[in-house]
Backbone:
């Protein structure tokens, strides 16, 4: 039995690592996949696993972008270090809305919205939005990270609040918001990755403290394995997405979301 639970953690870690960074909703996919490979562990652990496993994903961002995010990099000149500090301020500002709403309404959101119907509907709605927005031919105003101002960062942060609804996709909501506000696809994706750092670390830490970290040995092992797998897969997923959007738009993700959303609705309503 213990071996099977670890295999489940590995599968969910792979799903998390892929879907956290692609705009297709990691939480939504985890909820759906777990319907078919349910943990035979406590429900408190399962709910915590879905949040804490994201910590592995965020470590991939810190590793891949360590130089860009490190204001103390000895190879940076004074201007570059100052720009990095400003970037962190923007990241902090963008994280405020989701941090506040998530802290105040975490229990309500989890109880009322974590179900297959909501996930499917959000997959479809945001899939349609991706296609509509990508069909516009507006020229981006912000083509460098430094072009994003504090006000723009805050507005992108409000879009991140939408991702508290499972099935929305944190990266999807923030990328859509950033593109609507005038950023290029590449900068929208990159800033979305950076915005995840305080939100996901905070959510993971808060969830562990909230449940008291009272897990048994198997549950801690499953959590560790899932996070490690999530980290490894995230490295490849991030590299893939940044390479992909240099030459392509996000429409394919929109079509994927719509098709998956329809399949999910059909499955849960007709089985």
Residues:
């Amino acid at each position: 039995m213990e071996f099977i639970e670890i295999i489940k953690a590995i599968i969910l870690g792979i799903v998390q690592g892929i879907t956290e960074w692609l705009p297709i909703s990691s939480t939504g996919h985890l909820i759906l996949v777990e319907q078919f490979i349910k943990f035979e562990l406590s429900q408190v652990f399962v709910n915590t696993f879905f949040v804490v496993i994201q910590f592995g994903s965020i470590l991939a961002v810190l590793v891949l972008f360590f130089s860009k995010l490190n204001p103390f990099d000895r190879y940076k000149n004074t201007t570059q270090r100052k720009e990095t500090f400003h970037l962190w301020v923007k990241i902090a500002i963008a994280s405020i809305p989701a941090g506040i709403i998530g802290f105040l309404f975490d229990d309500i959101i989890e109880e009322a919205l974590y179900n297959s119907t909501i996930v499917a509907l959000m997959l479809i709605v945001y899939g349609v939005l991706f296609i509509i927005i990508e069909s516009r031919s507006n020229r981006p105003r912000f083509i460098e990270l430094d072009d994003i101002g504090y006000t723009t960062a805050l507005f992108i942060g409000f879009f991140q609040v939408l991702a508290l609804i499972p099935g929305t996709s944190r990266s999807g909501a923030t990328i859509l918001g950033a593109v609507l506000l005038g950023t290029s696809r590449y900068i929208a994706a990159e800033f979305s990755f950076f915005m995840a750092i305080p939100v996901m670390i905070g959510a993971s830490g808060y969830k562990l403290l909230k449940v008291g970290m009272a897990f048994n040995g198997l549950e801690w092992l499953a959590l560790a394995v899932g996070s490690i797998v999530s980290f490894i897969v995230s490295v490849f997923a991030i590299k893939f997405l940044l390479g992909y959007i240099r030459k392509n738009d996000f429409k394919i993700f929109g079509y994927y979301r719509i098709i998956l959303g329809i399949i999910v609705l059909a499955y849960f309503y007709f089985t």
